[in-house]
Amino acid sequence: MTRSATMTSQTKIRDSQSGTEASAGYSGQRGQPAKASSPEDHLNIYSMADRATLKEGRGHPSTPSRVRFTFALLGAVLILGAFTAAAVAGSAGERPAPAAALAAFVVNSRADTSDANPGNGVCADAAGACTLRAALEEANARVGADTITFAPAVFPAAAPAAITPASDLPPLADLAGGTTIDGSGAGVIVDGRDDPALLFGFTLISNNNALQRVQIHRFPQDGVFIGGSGNTVAYCYIGVDAAGADRGNGGHGVDMQISAQTIVSNTVGPGNVIGFNAGDGVFVRGSGNVVKENYIGADAAGRNVGNAGDGVQVHALLAEEGANTVGPGNVIGFNRGDGVKIWGRGNVVRDNKIGADATGKNLGNDGNGVAIQAMTGVSGANNTIGPGNVIGFNKADGVIIWGSRNVVANNYIGADAGGKNLGNSWAGVRINSFAAPDGASNRVGPGNVIAFNDVGVYVDGDAADRNTITRNPIFQNTSLGIDLHAAADLWPGVTPNDPNDADAGPNDLLNFPVLAAVTTATARGSACAGCTVEVFVAAADASGHGQGRTFAGSAAATGAGQFNVALSGVRVGDDVTATATDAQGNTSEFSANVRAVAVGAIKRYLPLIRR
Question: To the nearest whole percent, how much of the chain has pLDDT over 90?
Fold first, then answer.
């Protein structure tokens, strides 16, 4: 089944009283309402509104809705596991004694039949064949670690063969030991065929399982659902086949959901290709989980296999959640939402290609490269973007922040290490706020290269204060290098200094420094008392303010507001600009440019004294 997916403009919906925010705008995605398999009611995991959304083809249920039904979903999976275990015990009598050694089951049939005698340690249906379903039943019936592999004669690597379950496969539920499902050396497709009687492709509700080298196609909900800890998914094609064809699942490619706030240390990667799913490529909850070295929305050939939601969404809102890592080594492109979206605290996005690949090819996501979202006082804090991300060609901002105390440092945003133009359509970095503490106390820098975007760094909202922008090469953005957007400003545009810096707005609309004289050795002038002045060699733009391409030196202004900064790397004829940062961390826009002259070219005259 081919899915046509379009993306409407992403709309930020925020309640100014509560400070909550949601994203809306996915349209035309794959998805049909999930029909419950036995037992009936507890598997109906989505609300009626969500099921209507799926039925009408409007997309995967929104993130807030998925949060609302997390515990219902986990309950469904756990009940399903108990149901499966009960069925196993009923057919095999009492549960066998703990296994003394690892069991190895080799799937040698494409059929979907059950094991004839679960728990006897032999994977065999009534005809003596070992099916995937039978192997999973045996693994669940045994206590301890097991492996499930596939016979290459039945599943040739050069011509992958499909297993088509008629009902949901048993969840991996042996809490005593992990099971490894390994398609190495074979060609294995597990295909849900968009059958509304099914839910997930693979369900890992126990710990320390591994799923690798399997193609997972066309399940009505998630390709892989993880409800345990320490699980690994690697080298799988999830929602897409090896030729780049659409085989999208109706939910997320990989979905991690917490169970009693214990889901930790799961790893998605390396080597997965995750595309064409109607939700996000990877949806992460819990803490300490890692998404690394995957192709998400783009494959290794640079083909568009975009997911209908975000490439990776980290939705870790509870106090027990956080410290998840996206990276290193992901290529995240062509997704119809954001490349990476974060709700929560303490997460890291590092060493990824987001919207561009290593060659600089345009893989732009339809939304932002990285979005940090906040519900006031709840999330969007203490996340770190960097080091090492290349964020380019995204159709909104490179990085957008709704939140506080986040750091964006040592990334390439709109350019790569070779200086190639990878400009994002809007700002390189945007900090937004409707209410405190959103958009407060964030730091942009040091070491970001921010170039070829519409605006370099854009700070918007009266409560967007104490945001520090420091030591970043900023150049060749279409308008300003730094824009503090006051309500009365034309956008974009320089905010003029005002007497005594009495106005308020983003970063308190801190006055930029006034450069009085610049030589190749020093820059002197006036700024706010005690402020740190950073001086840059400018990549001049039409505004005459900035942009600060090369850091040349810094110093603190005196209590009287005077500064004298020693410079390095400044040549005669260079345009020079500066920023000021006050004690609260507010950084100004770039100052008006002044051209550097040779040392000694500025003459000082003694005042005339009349006798």
Answer: 73
pLDDT band at 378 (very low <50, low <70, confident <90, very high): low
Contact present, 189 and 162 (Cβ < 8 Å): yes
Name the strands in the sheet holding 562-566, side by side, starting at the edge strand that comes first in the sequence: 514-518, 522-526, 562-566
The residue that leads in pLDDT, 70 or 408, is 408
Q: Hey, which residues does 342 pair with through a beta bridge?
A: 314, 372
Q: Are 527 and 533 in contact (CB under 8 A)?
A: yes
> What secondary structure, in 3-state letters, does 279-327 show?
CCCEEECCECCEECCCEECECCCCCECCCCCCCEEEEECCCCCECCEEC
Among 218, 327, 199, 326, CA closest to 275: 218
Task: Give me 32's structure tokens.
Answer: 């049909």
C-alpha 416/C-alpha 599 separation (Å) is 35
CA distance 19 to 433: 10
Torsion from C-alpha of 370, 374, 378, 379, nearest 10 degrees: 10
- Tens-place pLDDT, residues 106-155: 999 999 999 999 999 999 999 999 999 999 999 999 988 999 999 999 99
Q: How far is CA 461 from the centre of its chain?
A: 24
Query: Pairing relation of β-strands 532-538 and 575-581?
Result: antiparallel
- Reported as a pLDDT band with limits 50, 70 and 90, residue 62 is very low
- Among the listed ranges 12-21, 123-132, 521-530, which one has the minimum average pLDDT value? 12-21
Which of 310, 425, 289, 434 is CA-nearest to residue 374?
A: 434
pTM of the full predicted structure?
Answer: 0.85
Q: What is the three-state SS of 222-269?
A: CCEEECCCCCEEECCEECECCCCCECCCCCCCEEECCCCCCCECCEEC
Q: Is residue 589 pLDDT above 70, yes or no?
A: yes
- What Rg do the C-alpha atoms of the chain give, in angstroms? 28
What is the overall mean pLDDT for the chain? 85
Distance, CA of 311 to CA of 282 (rounded, Å): 6
Contact 162, 191 (CB under 8 A): yes
Q: What size, in residues, is the chain?
A: 611
Q: Are 437 and 404 in contact (CB under 8 A)?
A: yes
C-alpha separations of 54 from 27, 30, 48, 58, 278 in Å: 10, 8, 10, 6, 10
What phi, psi does 285 have (nearest 5°)?
-125, 170
